[in-house]
């Protein structure tokens, strides 16, 4: 990592906390028309990284989740597919068996969720996940190194993991709930993008707070400004705590207003979620039929 980059990170403007949170609250208060809501629900479904990251995950559970990602609503072939299924690396092969090339297979790696491992272990973890069929890798940064000011280690590890990904896309998890300040979130976002991240992701979902609207807004500003500065577009993935259709639509409004329409696409914006998809499906059926479905309409994942 060059001294020029470190100096550039130090020159990033400080974040106006009051202004950021007020802007997020103002955008969250907006309502959208019924026809736009129908479109937004389908778009949100297509952006979901359907996720299970539990020690009790089994091949059967993972295959069932992959089947759901392919056909979220088995009664309605017009329902969009999910964007990806996100699992531990050793489960990636079971997902690939089910989805083929129709849905992305994302695997967490690099000693998820702590990131507390040697670089050699992180690279082996990444390579194994790719070999098992993952075409997206969700890595975690070394928050201890970042918070102690060792930005070079964080940067160089991302570069190395990106190389180990080969053709797989790399999502870099900042774990914003541990970064303490909005200034740190902005610096970590730029650091990850400079190191080659294809996506920047808020959280592992294992730490609270996970995704929040102000943090996501700040990261969207970062990817927008990064594209203006470099010409390269980077995606954003809020993960953890987004459970309702109402919440998802708030995030889509922020994407549109802050980054722009180019990011309203699953190639550039994702939701890391498990329970969100069920609520989207329930609301989708309500809009199509005028009534809510019964409790047996969606699966319990």
UniProtKB/TrEMBL annotation:
Entry's family note: Belongs to the DeoC/FbaB aldolase family. DeoC type 2 subfamily.
GO aspect biological process, one term: carbohydrate catabolic process
Gene that produces this protein: deoC
Superkingdom of origin organism: Bacteria
Pathway field: Carbohydrate degradation; 2-deoxy-D-ribose 1-phosphate degradation; D-glyceraldehyde 3-phosphate and acetaldehyde from 2-deoxy-alpha-D-ribose 1-phosphate: step 2/2
Alphabetical list of SUPFAM superfamilies matching this protein: Aldolase (SSF51569)
CDD domains in alphabetical order: DeoC (cd00959)
Protein name: Deoxyribose-phosphate aldolase
């Amino acid at each position: 990592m060059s001294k020029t980059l470190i100096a550039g990170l130090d020159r990033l403007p400080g974040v106006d906390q009051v202004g950021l949170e007020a802007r997020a609250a103002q955008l969250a208060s907006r309502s959208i028309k019924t026809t736009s809501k129908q479109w937004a629900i389908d778009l949100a479904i297509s952006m979901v990284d359907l996720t299970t990251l539990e020690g009790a995950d089994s091949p059967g559970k993972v295959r069932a989740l992959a089947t759901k990602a392919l056909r979220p609503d088995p009664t309605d072939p017009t329902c969009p597919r999910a964007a990806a299924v996100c699992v531990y690396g050793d489960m990636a092969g079971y997902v690939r068996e089910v989805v083929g090339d129709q849905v992305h297979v994302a695997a967490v790696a690099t000693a998820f969720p702590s990131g507390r491992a040697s670089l050699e272990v992180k690279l082996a973890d990444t390579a194994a996940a790719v070999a098992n069929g993952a075409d997206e890798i969700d890595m975690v940064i070394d928050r201890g190194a970042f918070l102690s000011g060792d930005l070079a280690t964080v940067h160089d590890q991302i570069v190395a993991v990106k190389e180990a990904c080969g053709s797989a896309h790399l999502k870099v998890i900042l774990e914003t709930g541990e970064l303490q300040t909005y200034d740190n979130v902005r610096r970590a976002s730029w650091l990850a993008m400079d190191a080659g991240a294809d996506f920047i992701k808020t959280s592992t979902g294992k730490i609270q707070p996970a995704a929040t609207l102000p943090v996501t807004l700040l990261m969207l500003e970062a990817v927008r400004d990064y594209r203006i500065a470099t010409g390269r577009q980077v995606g954003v993935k809020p993960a953890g705590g987004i459970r309702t259709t109402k919440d998802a639509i708030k995030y889509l409004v922020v994407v549109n207003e802050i980054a722009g329409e180019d990011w309203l696409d699953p190639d550039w914006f994702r939701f890391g979620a498990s329970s969100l998809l069920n609520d989207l499906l329930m609301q989708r059926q309500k809009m199509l039929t005028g009534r809510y479905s019964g409790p047996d309409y969606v699966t319990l994942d």
